[in-house]
Write a structure and sequence with these properties.
Structural class: alpha+beta
Strand order of the largest sheet: 1-5-4-3-2-6-7-8
Order of helices and strands: HEHEHEEEHHEEEHEH
Distance between the termini: 21 Å
Number of helices: 7
Helix content: 25-40%
């Protein structure tokens, strides 16, 4: 588990304990639920003109020992620790997955915040990930209702994401795929926002460093130098967390 100089991680430990006691009713859901398009759920929609590209450095850590060493070394730079719950959805005909797209609701710190996102066209090479990403805030209570009844997502008539899901991917009904949890420690280190992840799947736990960057090759070398100086083993991530979740197998 994460270690830090601030009080946040101890509270997150309690959240993770609650996570592990909680059972998702939708983990094995296979039947989409449909709703009238005349009613809509509460939704906040920021204006956007083009799909932004998320570029991230992704370095995989081999085990909890390496994760703890990174946590210890970065503790003076700790900003916050986030407890994330990630729930994914697909069309009833797998329209999104077939087209390398992922529709996700992410809940923060036991429903203090919720974000809807659509990621598409992922490419990851030599530890650098590039993917189209759209994000929109959702009221957490509405998000939970959508986990219970996935068809409610299609009622977000003012959402650019849902408009794209319906029109570009021709999705008529949605199913919940389940998901995984993530404990993310965030650090401000040498002008970079480093994110140290402990990702909890129901088939195991993985560890990773992520860093969003406009100059990924330069920043990757900086992070690699830090890890090598500390004697911490790492490798380049070659799949994203959603791909790991779908394969139900931790990376080798």
């Amino acid at each position: 588990m994460l270690k830090s100089s601030g009080p946040a991680p101890s509270s997150v430990v309690g959240l993770v304990g609650k996570w592990r006691k909680k059972t998702h009713q939708n983990r094995n859901l296979t039947r989409p639920l449909h709703f009238s398009t005349t009613s809509q759920a509460s939704f906040a929609n920021p204006k956007s003109s083009a799909t932004p590209m998320e570029v991230e450095i992704k370095l995989r850590l081999p085990d909890s020992t390496a994760h703890q060493k990174v946590s210890d070394a970065l503790s003076p730079f700790h900003i916050k620790t986030l407890a994330q719950e990630n729930i994914f959805f697909d069309g009833e005909g797998s329209e999104l997955v077939k087209n390398l797209a992922a529709l996700r609701l992410r809940f923060y710190d036991l429903d203090s915040r919720c974000v809807l996102s659509l990621k598409a066209k992922p490419v990851i090479s030599s530890g650098i990930s590039r993917v189209e990403e759209q994000e929109e805030p959702v009221d957490p209570s509405v998000g939970r209702a959508c986990v219970d009844e996935p068809g409610r997502l299609l009622l977000f008539g003012s959402s650019d994401i849902i408009k794209r899901v319906r029109e570009e991917y021709n999705v008529k009904g949605l199913v919940c795929l389940g998901g995984f949890r993530n404990v993310r420690a965030v650090y401000d280190w040498k002008g970079l926002k480093l994110e140290l992840d402990e990702t909890i799947y129901d088939f195991g736990t993985s560890y990773e460093i992520e860093c969003e960057s406009v100059e990924p090759e330069r920043d990757k070398k900086l992070i690699e130098g830090f890890l090598e100086e500390k004697g911490i083993r790492y490798s380049y991530s070659d799949v994203n967390k959603f791909a790991v979740f779908r394969s139900r197998k931790l990376p080798d």
